[in-house]
Design brief:
Protein name: Recombinase family protein
Helix content: 40-55%
Strand content: 5-15%
InterPro entries: DNA_bind_recomb_sf, DNA_bind_recombinase_dom, Resolv_N, Resolvase-like_N_sf, SSR_resolvase
Distance between the termini: 36 Å
Pfam families: Recombinase (PF07508), Resolvase (PF00239)
CATH architecture of the largest domain: 3-Layer(aba) Sandwich
CATH topology of the largest domain: Rossmann fold
GO molecular function: DNA binding; DNA strand exchange activity
CATH class of the largest domain: Alpha Beta
Number of helices: 15
Radius of gyration: 27 Å
Order of helices and strands: EHEHEHHEHHHHHEEHEEEEHHHHHEE
Strand order of the largest sheet: 2-1-3-4
Bound molecules: zinc ion
Shape: globular
Length: 477
């Protein structure tokens, strides 16, 4: 069984606002865990605002130590040692656990340190001690300059991100913007990022690596969810907020409205929650939807070599498999089953579409409430600045407001995501069977699952027979 590890991320705003995005930290850690064949089971995320308070209790860090000691996780993956253990004291507490429980796993993205070995511990102690001492004056000055520019909404240098013109990164590249919007619509309709990545690579879209057409999964994801799309200025991967509590707006043309962008981000995030880690591509329409008529086990599609001897045929069949816990006694050629189900489902959805009209245009109802909270936050921050209240008071009042704001924003994102998903799916009613099969496979599956909860494939008896539709039983929702 795969080792179960926890991922630790931390945002720190004490180094002149330097904040390596939590999202990026987590992504890199997940990739590292993947690489080591560990299963990332939990993310511990601390938001460290130590600019205000020197000895903030890192709640998630404490929880992680507890879980580690209790054996709920078998190790830790962190972005770097500095983020994990700032103080020698924290490091010693960690090392103590690694002493007690040998065989624990440990890895960081940026350095090759292993707390599981004595050498690694010595190294870690030295590194933490140094990090604690050094000041990095020069690099701080440069960072401060970068931050200043960012706070003014100035664009960062470098090549233009996909979506904007190569010769002028403040202007939208209409072709690229169109490709982005189209891909975002697909995401909302349930298409996976991997599918869009494949298509973009084929069409030479996106921001492929120099001299190739290849792009990493996370690059495509970033292009479609980049805060820059709505004009938000980011700094080290995080949205930058101004003194008024509002995001700093960049000096370039946006591609998305806030609603569009939030909806896409929410859809991507939700998909990740539902399908953590890498999911295997489901190549056949009814894999996992079809069930065996005898034992009711789930049936997957598979290519059977003996089925079409001598040819490289793409003929496949749905086969109840002993390996997957089934009886292994039922199988059917796949293509006619797929066609039959597609016809039935499309017919049903056509008749449904005539009954239910598309939902009317509608706005999220709590926009005013959110605005009010933003104003409250800005006023609190201003009150502290003008010395009407102390930092301590501010920090007492702020978290509750921030929580409310974040909850509302999440709710708004969900609201628009659901509206847009409904719209994106609304146009299936007029598909022909051929158009249906031209869609990406997960879109096809989604359309099928909209109408059916399963397809039962009944046994057909021995020998090769003509396809009998009556032995395929759709289970309607
Ligand atoms: Zn079976």
């Amino acid at each position: 069984m795969a080792r179960r590890v926890g991922i630790y991320t931390r945002i720190s705003r004490d180094d002149e606002g330097e904040a390596l995005g939590v999202a990026r930290q987590q992504r890199d850690c997940e990739r590292l865990a993947d690489l080591r064949s560990w299963q990332a089971v939990k993310v511990y995320e601390d938001n460290d605002v130590s600019a205000f308070k020197r000895n903030v209790v890192r709640e998630e860090f404490e929880l992680m130590l507890k879980d580690l000691r209790a054996g709920l996780i078998d190790g830790i993956v962190a972005y770097d040692l500095d983020r994990l253990a700032r103080q020698p004291r924290d490091l010693e507490r960690l090392i103590e656990i690694y002493d007690e429980r040998p065989r624990l796993e440990f890895a960081t993205v940026t350095n090759d340190i292993n707390l599981g070995t004595p050498d690694g511990r010595t190294m870690a102690r030295i590194m933490v001690a140094f990090a604690n001492k050094s000041s990095h004056d020069a690099s701080r000055r440069i960072k401060r300059k970068h931050l200043e520019l960012a706070q003014q909404g100035k664009d960062s240098g470098g090549p233009a991100p996909y979506g904007w013109r190569k010769d002028d990164r403040t202007k939208v590249d209409p072709e690229a913007a169109k490709a982005i919007r189209e891909a975002q619509r697909e995401i909302l309709a349930g298409v996976r990022i991997g599918t869009i990545r494949t298509r973009w690579q084929e069409q030479g879209l996106g921001n492929p690596r120099e001299g190739t057409k290849r792009m990493a999964h996370h690059q495509v994801e970033h292009i479609l969810t980049n805060p820059r799309l709505v004009g938000y200025r980011t700094y080290h991967g995080e949205i930058l907020y101004g003194d008024d509590g509002q995001p700093v707006m960049g000096e370039w043309e946006p591609i998305n409205t806030l609603e569009e962008w939030e909806a896409v981000c929410a859809a991507v995030a939700e998909r990740k929650r539902k399908h953590p880690g890498r999911s295997l591509a489901r190549k056949y329409l009814l894999s996992g939807i079809a069930r065996c008529g005898l034992c009711k086990a789930k049936i997957r599609g598979q290519i059977n070599q003996r089925w079409e001897p001598g040819t490289k045929a793409t003929r496949f069949r749905y086969q109840c498999s002993v390996v997957n816990g089934g009886c292994g006694k039922v199988a059917r050629a796949g293509d006619p089953v797929d066609r039959l189900i597609a016809q039935l489902v499309l017919e049903e959805q056509r008749s449904q579409a005539m009954v239910t009209a598309v939902p009317s245009e509608q706005r999220w109802a709590r926009e005013v409430e959110l605005e009010q909270i933003n104003t409250d936050i800005a006023q609190l921050v201003e009150a502290e600045r003008s010395k009407q209240i102390t930092v301590a008071t501010l920090l007492q009042l702020l978290p509750a407001k921030e929580r409310m704001r974040d909850e509302l924003k999440l709710e708004r994102a969900r609201f628009y995501k659901e509206r847009r998903q409904a719209e994106a799916k609304g146009d299936t009613a007029n598909l022909t069977v051929d158009e249906f099969f031209a869609l990406p496979i997960e879109r096809q599956q989604e359309i099928v699952l909209h109408s059916l909860s399963a397809v039962i494939i009944h046994p057909a008896g021995r020998g090769r027979r003509k396809f009998d539709p009556s032995l395929i039983e759709p289970v309607w929702r």
